[in-house]
Amino acid sequence: MPEITDDILKKVIKVRESDSYKGKYGRILLIGGSENYGGAIIMSTEGAINSGAGLTAVATHSVNLTALHSRDPEAMYIDWRNKNLSDLIKKMDVIVCGPGLGTSDFAKGIVKMLRDNVNEKQTVILDASALDLISEDKNLMPLNAGHIVLTPHQMEWQRVSQIRIPFQDDKANKAALKQLVPNGNATLILKSNRTHVYGEDGNVYVNTAGNPGMATGGMGDTLAGIIGGFIAQFGPSIETILAAVYIHSLAGDILYKENYVVKPTEISKLLPRLMKKNAIKSGK
Ligand SMILES: NC(=O)C1=CN([C@@H]2O[C@H](COP(=O)(O)OP(=O)(O)OC[C@H]3O[C@@H](n4cnc5c(N)ncnc54)[C@H](OP(=O)(O)O)[C@@H]3O)[C@@H](O)[C@H]2O)[C@@H](O)CC1
Ligand SMILES: Nc1ncnc2c1ncn2[C@@H]1O[C@H](COP(=O)(O)OP(=O)(O)O)[C@@H](O)[C@H]1O
Ligand SMILES: [Mg+2]
Question: Ligand 1: residues within 6 Å at CB?
Fold first, then answer.
């Protein structure tokens, strides 16, 4: 089984061209953050911004606006009740949906709106509550997206796939993924202490980095944002996704050397320097 190791970063992270601008690094929209879970969408947003997304927008409950902007003024904001959200969805390259979204009827309506407005040029990353909602109604899967990335932890995957955690082996997981997204345009990132990535290419990749200091609320929210930020810049290939999974854990390992607990927001903080260190000049 292929392992995800250090060399993936140098394959994916490019030195930026001098004549580039923010539009070259992708537009990303993150949707989530109910009244109780604003932190989740803020952590996801920090993952996206700090991993280099060109333009970042956040659709969330209005109660989160002040906290979001005081931490991340780089992010644009739209109240998730705003009717223009469907138009904004259409303009994005990447959409992350689910961190802190909750499973209310309103949240279900948001996932439905997402499904009805995405197109084949876009990548949708589904995390947390979005997966829980889909587990209740499989018709919510945004099958018109060009690429779908699912990022469940084991219990979320149990809910979506109906495979109980002890029985989540590669064969069963692949079959369930195919059933959920029959056109094969889906990547499954099954998170655990040894995260497995099921690529559109049929391969299963195992993450070799990560540590128990990372067992902290918000760690997965941050990962979803990083995956979004990487896809926005480097495109939706399996290499991009593997690099995002790896750099999240690598940052965690660096912090864990000197910290008992690894805070998700500290991972995001470390990303710009880690990316700089691993960036290669194109053509080399
Ligand atoms: N700061 C914020 O705003 C934050 C907001 N958040 C938001 O909260 C919402 C709910 O998401 P969630 O992940 O917290 O809850 P849920 O889906 O019920 O999973 C927990 C259940 O699954 C079980 N379990 C088994 N295996 C597991 C595994 N490997 N990893 C994890 N769990 C595992 C576990 O078992 P137990 O611990 O009971 O043994 C328990 O029964 C969602 O919108 C999310 O974005 C969070 O992101 C945190 C930061
Ligand atoms: N013991 C561990 N070793 C390595 N990685 C871990 C460990 N515990 C958690 N993680 C990582 O932390 C993240 C947890 O995701 P998730 O459960 O969705 O968190 P949250 O929903 O609180 O943001 C995953 O990327 C997972 O791989
Ligand atoms: Mg999560």
Answer: 37, 39-40, 99-101, 128-129, 153-156, 192, 217-218, 220-221
Tokens of 47: 């993952």
Cβ proximity of 196 and 173 under 8 Å: yes
Q: Contact 247/10 with Cβ under 8 angstroms?
A: no
Q: What is the Cα–Cα distance from 160 to 103, expressed in whole angstroms? A: 14
Q: How far is the CA of 225 from the centre of ligand 3 (A)?
A: 11
Stretch (H or E) spanning 150: strand 147-150
Nearest CA to ligand 1 atom 9: 100
191 lines ligand 2 (CB under 6 A): yes
Give the whole-angstrom CA distance, residue 59 versus residue 35: 13
Its ipTM equals 0.98
Specify binding-site residues. 40, 100, 153, 191-195, 220-221
pTM over 0.90? The answer is: yes
Q: What is the pLDDT of residues 15-55, one digit of tens each?
A: 999 999 999 999 999 999 999 999 999 999 999 999 999 99
Domains and CATH numbers, the chain: 3-13+26-278 (3.40.1190.20)
Q: Closest Cα to residue 44, out of 260, 262, 248, 273?
A: 248
Structure tokens at 48: 């996206």
Quote the ligand 1 centre to 12 CA distance (angstroms): 30
In one-letter notation, the amino acid at residue 131 is L
Beta bridge partner(s), residue 55: 27
User: Quick count: other Cβ atoms within 10 Å of Cβ 202?
Assistant: 8
If you take atom 15 of ligand 2, which residue's CA is the nearest one?
220
Report the amino acid identity of residue 174: K
